[in-house]
Amino acid sequence: MPGKNLSRDEAQQRASILTVDSYQVRLDVTSAPDPAAATFRSTTTIAFRCAEPGAATFLDLLAPAVRAVTLNGRSLDPATAYDGARVHVDGLAAENTLTVEADCAYSRTGEGLHRFTDPADGETYLYTHYEPADARRVFATFEQPDLKAPFDFTVTAPAAWDVRSNAPHRTVTEDGAARTWEFEPTRPISTYLTAVVAGPYHVVRDHYSRALADGTVLDIPLAALCRRSLAPYFDADEILGVTKLGLDFFHEKFDYPYPFGKYDQAFVPEYNIGAMENPGCVTFREEFVFRSKVTDAAYEARANVVLHEMAHMWFGDLVTMRWWDDLWLKESFADFMGSYGLVGAGTRYRAAWVTFANQRKAWAYRQDQFPTTHPITADIRDLEDAKLNFDGITYAKGASVLKQLVAYAGADAFFEGARRYFQRHAFGNTELADLLDILEETSGRDLKSWAAAWLQTAGVNTLTPQLTVDAEGRITELAVLQDGDVQRPHRIAVGLYDRDADGALVRTERFELDVTGARTVVTGAAGHARPALVLLNDDDLTYCKIRFDEESLETLRTGLGDIKDDLARALAWSAVWNLTRDALMPARDYVALVLRFAGQEANIGVLQSLHAQAKGAVDLYADPAWRGEGGRLLADSALRELRSAAPGSDHQLAWARFLAQTANGSEHLGLVRGLLAGTARIDGLEVDQELRWALWLTLAAAGQAGEEELAGEFAADNTASGRRQYTQCLAARPTPEAKAAAWSAVIDSEELPNALVEANIAGFGVPAHRDLTALYAAPYFKLLERVWAERTIEIAMRIVGGFFPQAQVDEATLAEADAWLSGHPDAAPALRRLVLERRDDLARALRAQACDRG
Ligand SMILES: [Zn+2]
């Protein structure tokens, strides 16, 4: 479609001549409950100035039909003005009024105005999601972040509905079966941040107030929303509790009163991402409303997201990046603030930095070692680039580097910088230099070279200890070696660990230093007795991979689980996983560590990531000849730990879920069936609905769940979640017919909603079914360009990433991927990026398997 992929150059050109004064957007969604109605009426009136009268420009709009275009009272013919992606207007005056009337489409992909009908009660729900550029699916826009304006929304909806937008509503007028909601104008915001949530949502209201320094009182009405059928499970008090702690904390740290009036948090169905920071109207994936028991790691993750989105009200919404190159200016900060806030705001999630070190950083390390990695400040040529950059670099590496900046420049300088940044750039747009200038003022340090090393180059450094010891066993020198194409200044701590009287590994010495260049001596270490363990990057101040000296590695093999401190232990787990991924530790050795020590892992989030990694190690990184034995060992340990875990504990649930993921022999599968039938019991383990589906998935993948049984479970749980999991179970059956049906459901129809696309892909790709799915490698590569051209980018990304033959860890599949890449040099860069990353995963798995074979 012409002009769908807006380029940075076009956006710059448009911003150079236009200033937008206001948008008025009228939407009529009264047709939404009628499944036969595909579209809704959208009328947009934009007031804007043009610095070059007589010039031409365009609006972005993705709509099935444009009914009318009027510029300054002059009607334009939609047939010529609208090309399917843009509305072209010329002969601009110095001051312009432009009205576009269109029929826009209800979305099933989570992009634009998504429509969902609840199978539980037939109710229809709508919400919008736009980032980076889908407001144009709902109204005519100048779709770029730096053309901010106040928005005035009016929404006509079924009378029984609640309707929310960024601003509070001004009036509601009833007209028969419909009600019209007029909202207050917003403050100046970017198009991608506007929002509408509409439907018979369940609403929990609350209130936050705070005395400000100037003697006034800031009042913020709070609301938390979810679908009615989820209301029995909605723990809004917990969510609103974290919300209030966060509002206290960010007001103290940022010293800029929350600028968007009220604060709604809506948990919405079939959401593509975790959450979105629409000012005053945040949307979250509704899987954060827990229908069944989850571990505390899930509550922590949700609270982290609540604070992440709240931080965006300042970083991103009040001050916004000029273009997507500087997406990190909001995402890295919000990601950092999520963990920082969990600890600093006084929530009960005290282990947030352990989670960050162990899980969030794993995402960054993985992404940063792809051939497609990029600097934190990226080069984003167009919207397809932008869409792919919501990645482990922009979020997790960026947040890690901010954590390092706080260690390097100090927390006071960092937050004073934030305060000046908001004061100086409120309601404006910024670039890297705007932030650096301020941080240099507040820190008194030259941050240009720091930024060049950390923000403007790609890749992760590896730090390795180099230890020399004298005849008495005393350290004569401890040095830190830094590898990598780019060497960076790292503020790090180095910990020396030894056994205490109880046998626990505890820190006996800590040195803090700046590592610069290829080799840095740790001052103060000489003269100490050689410790059992040298831990670089102790306290996780910097962003790097760490290695160990031989003796320390031996200590980990025999005593990793004995490290007393949760963060230090999490760092050790992370390091041995990196060794495994880098083909420096055989997969079976990593699995042996998990088998030996996971049972004593206290941190529930770390335990759950060990489960996922151990399963991945067996499926992808182990010698195929050992895979069967590795799988049995995991399942045996899951069963053993499940039986010995404290009844009703999070650990018990985590091990039950791990058993569901690994069960293979008749003993394990028999227990799974028994738990489902109620003939087997584990004391304290409640086999609730979500766990039931996890167990059914095990049986389905093992070929031991019939279609009727699965349909029976779905009939008993005819909900959105039930439908997703039923779909996944059907696709997970080990038959050619099941795989063909899942493939076809995704590829041959554009009607399938995003949630079921994902469920089919997940079920299709059971690693153990690699013989069945091998047949799809060739069709996959043939389909790529068509999928990219025909599907929305969200769905195309899922198909390209999800159907890649990643379980086919062999040279032939690698060659197929290479052949496609070399044969399609001109394919869309974003498509090539996705394939390159999956190809790199495959090559990594081959190296790891070679290492495991020995
Ligand atoms: Zn974010």
Structural Rg: 28 Å
- What are the bound molecules? zinc ion
Mean pLDDT over the residues: 97
Q: What general form does the structure show?
A: globular
Number of strands: 28
Can you count the helices? 28
Give the strand order of the largest sheet, numbering strands 1, 2, ... along the chain.
Answer: 5-4-7-2-1-10-13-12
Cofactor: Zn(2+)
Keywords: Aminopeptidase, Hydrolase, Metal-binding, Metalloprotease, Protease, Zinc
GO molecular function: alanyl aminopeptidase activity
Domain Peptidase M1 membrane alanine aminopeptidase: 242-454
Q: How would you portray this structure in words?
A:
The protein has 854 residues and is of the alpha+beta class. The protein contains 28 helices and 28 strands. The strands form 7 sheets. It has an 8-stranded mixed sheet with strand order 5-4-7-2-1-10-13-12. Strand 4 and strand 5 (74-76) form a beta hairpin. Helix 9 crosses helix 10 (432-443), helix 13 runs parallel beside helix 15 (604-621) and helix 19 runs parallel beside helix 21 (720-731). Bound molecules: zinc ion (ZN).
